[in-house]
Specification:
This protein is an alpha/beta fold. It contains 9 helices and 9 strands. The radius of gyration is 17 Å and the shape is globular.
Length: 229
C-alpha cells in the first residue's frame, strides 16, 4: 500500500500513464452518461487525482469543485483539464476534512479515493465509513462512490475485509450497487507488467509477464445514492 501512496504524492505522470490504460472500452463513461444527469449541475469531486473520472462528465457539468490531498496531483489535473479551466475550482483537501468545507453540490462523486481512507484507519474504521457517508449526504442529494472490486482477478469481489465492510455499509445506507468492468489494455505484456507493477507491486508485475497478459481485468463497483423526494 505504501508504494501506491508514494505514487499518489510524488509521481503523477506515472499514475496518469497507468489510468490512461484503464477502461479501454469506456464502460465508466457509458455508465455515468446513462445513469446520471450532469447537465447544468454543480459537482463536488473528492480525490480528483489527475482528472480521469472528471473527463467522463465535465463537458456537461456547469461547475466543478475539485478536491485532492496532493497538490502534485492537482497540478497534473489542471494540465489534463485545462480545456475546462473556466468552470473548475481546485482545493487541496484530505478526505478526512470534508466537514471543513461549506459548499453544497447537486452531485458528489469520488473515484478510487475514499477506499484508501477506510483501509488506512485500523482504529476507527466504522466511524470513518459513517463519516464519509454522512458528510456527503449533508452536501448533495445525489452521491456516486466508485471503488475497486479487484485487479487482475477473474470475478468481482472486495479486495479484503476492510473494503468489504465499507461496501456493505454503503448498501445499508441506501446506496445502490452496480458492477462494471474497467479493464486495462497495453501494447504487450512487458509494458503491462512494468506499468502495473510500478503501482501494484512486483507480484502483479511477475504474474502479468508470466501469463503474457496485455489486457488486465479490472472490476469496478459504483454505489449511487439519491435522496428521496
Amino acid at each position: 500500500m505504501s508504494k501506491m501512496f508514494d505514487v499518489y504524492q510524488n509521481f503523477s505522470d506515472l499514475y496518469d500513464e497507468l489510468v490512461n490504460h484503464e477502461d479501454y472500452e469506456s464502460n465508466l463513461y457509458k455508465f455515468l452518461s446513462s445513469k446520471i444527469q450532469w447537465e447544468n449541475k454543480v459537482v463536488g469531486e473528492f480525490g480528483i487525482g489527475t482528472g480521469r473520472v472528471t473527463k467522463n462528465y465535465i463537458d456537461k457539468a456547469q461547475k466543478l469543485y475539485a478536491y485532492d490531498n496532493s497538490q502534485h496531483m492537482i497540478d497534473k489535473a489542471k494540465e489534463n483539464l485545462s480545456k475546462w479551466a473556466d468552470k473548475i475550482e481546485y482545493e487541496v483537501l484530505d478526505n478526512s476534512k470534508i466537514n471543513s468545507i461549506e459548499n453544497t453540490f447537486d452531485v458528489i462523486i469520488e473515484g478510487w479515493s475514499f477506499g484508501h481512507l477506510v483501509v488506512q484507519d485500523d482504529v476507527n474504521r466504522n466511524q470513518t465509513i459513517q463519516y464519509l457517508i454522512s458528510e456527503t449526504k449533508k452536501r448533495a442529494k445525489e452521491i456516486i462512490f466508485i471503488e475497486t472490486l479487484g485487479t487482475n482477478v477473474e470475478l468481482p469481489n472486495p479486495p479484503g475485509e476492510k473494503l468489504s465492510q465499507f461496501y456493505h455499509a454503503l448498501v445499508e445506507a441506501g446506496f445502490k450497487e452496480h458492477i462494471i468492468q474497467t479493464d486495462y489494455k497495453f501494447s504487450n505484456c512487458e509494458e503491462a507488467g512494468n506499468i502495473m507493477g510500478a503501482f501494484f507491486g512486483d507480484s502483479m508485475k511477475n504474474d502479468i509477464i508470466q501469463k503474457q497478459l496485455n489486457v488486465i481485468k479490472e472490476f469496478t463497483g459504483i454505489w449511487i445514492y439519491r435522496e428521496a423526494y
